[in-house]
Write a structure and sequence with these properties.
Blueprint lengths: L28 E2 L11 H7 L16 H4 L4 E2 L7 E5 L2 E8 L4 E5 L13 H4 L4 E5 L16 H16 L3 E6 L1 H12 L4 E7 L20 H26 L2 H11 L8 H8 L7 H12 L8 H5 L6 E6 L7 H10 L3 E6 L5 H4 L1 H16 L9 E3 L1
Helix pairs in contact: 4-5, 6-9
């Protein structure tokens, strides 16, 4: 599966989601030019067949050179870093630093390398883990029936078996909703959650499910098989086309305000996972099964069960998950703080310096000590 941020070409999610272990290597830091945005619009995805990408904002001012150029960058390793076996599948992760553990969860189609500007900086004060969700990045492209709870179970077990300490969970897009679910499923070990333009819908926003009418013989044996054949042909072609490095670079440049931000690091982190023999089938299963059933999982259902502090780091220029959702989450969940960012769907890669500063401030003033005042709203 290719590596980038959360997107889907399907109409059903177009408006909202558009959701050896002791051995720790040293991660060299490098300085790079500000090649930082990492997402393509889902509309472009549908029209042009982009296999995996994310959302950047057309019309957003180019990032300040200090935003990314001054940040150390996680070294890209084509072979990956560490691997953990989970339910018979190989899971890729990185770990760096010492202190309170932070667990970073990428968005749909992305990988640990999407946190390239965050891991080295956060690791100066904390022990940072980032893992590839099953089916994405350098983790196995397992041929299973994908469901949002698969990734929740994966991260819960990762914290139990690898981290083994109370942790703060940070997630972007799909990884954001996963982070919320993990906090509910493992409340004794999740001490805080930070969301960056999270996926997920409130119940009132979810599309009404179609009545589960009894399936007719015509539908079961003729219409449904033909539909599946058509989907496989179309999605198979789109996947083949979109995984070409030249195509990835071309499309990224067409949606980046500053085309210099499209570097080899970004292109390879997207194209390499797509060469896996199972990547095409995983893509098909995600497009036709998982992404069409998101209304079953709602933000209010998880937020109503969560008890830890919540930080909302929100790119207000995101055309798919705008600031209105962040405001609604904050209104629903009182133990939350909101930071507005002039960025798109992936603020951690687009304005990493601002994200790192805001996250570090929240960690030191809210998570590690009792809050002395009501949650804040700020703007960066």
């Amino acid at each position: 599966m290719s590596a980038s941020c959360a997107v889907t070409p399907l109409q059903s999610v177009r408006t909202e989601l558009f959701s050896s272990l002791s051995k720790r290597p040293t991660f060299p830091a490098q300085s790079r030019q500000p090649r930082n945005k990492c997402e393509i619009s889902r509309r472009g995805f549908a029209a042009r067949g982009i296999v995996a990408s994310g959302v950047s904002v057309m019309g957003t001012p180019p990032p300040s050179p200090s935003s990314a150029a001054s940040q150390p960058i996680q070294a890209f390793k084509p072979e990956g870093y560490n691997f953990w076996e989970w339910r018979g599948h190989k899971i890729h992760y990185v770990v760096q630093g010492e202190g309170l553990p932070l667990v970073l969860i990428h968005g749909f189609g992305a990988s640990v390398f999407h946190w390239r500007y965050n891991i080295p900086e956060l690791a100066k004060k904390y022990k940072v883990y980032a893992l590839d969700l099953l089916g994405f990045g350098w983790s196995d492209k397992a041929l299973i029936e994908y469901d949002a709870m698969v990734w929740t179970d994966q991260v819960i077990d990762f914290i139990k078996e690898i981290v083994k300490e109370p942790s703060v969970v940070v997630g972007n897009s799909l990884g954001g909703f996963t982070a919320l679910s993990v906090a509910v499923g493992l409340p004794e070990q999740v001490t805080g959650v930070a969301l960056l333009n999270s996926a997920g819908q409130f119940a009132s926003e979810s599309r009404k499910r179609e009545d589960e009418a009894e399936e007719t013989v015509l539908s079961k044996f003729i219409v449904k098989p033909l539909k599946e054949v058509f989907q496989r042909v179309v999605l198979g072609f789109l996947f083949w086309q979109a995984k070409q490095p030249s195509r990835i670079e071309s499309v990224l440049k067409s949606v980046y305000i500053n085309a210099a931000n499209v570097d080899d690091y970004l292109v390879e982190s997207i194209s390499k996972p797509a060469t896996d023999p199972n990547a095409g089938e995983v893509y098909y299963r995600l497009m036709t099964r998982f992404l069409t059933n998101q209304s079953r999982y709602t933000l209010d259902s998880v937020l109503s069960k969560m008890t830890c502090p919540l930080l909302l780091l929100w790119g207000d220029l995101d055309p798919w998950v705008g600031p209105a959702k962040a405001e609604k989450i904050k209104a629903f969940y009182s133990n939350s703080s909101l930071v507005h960012l002039q960025a798109g769907h992936c603020p951690h890669d687009e304005v990493p310096e601002a994200v790192n500063v805001a996250l570090l401030d929240w960690l030191s003033n809210v998570v590690t000590k009792k809050p002395s005042s009501s949650p804040e709203v700020s703007e960066v």
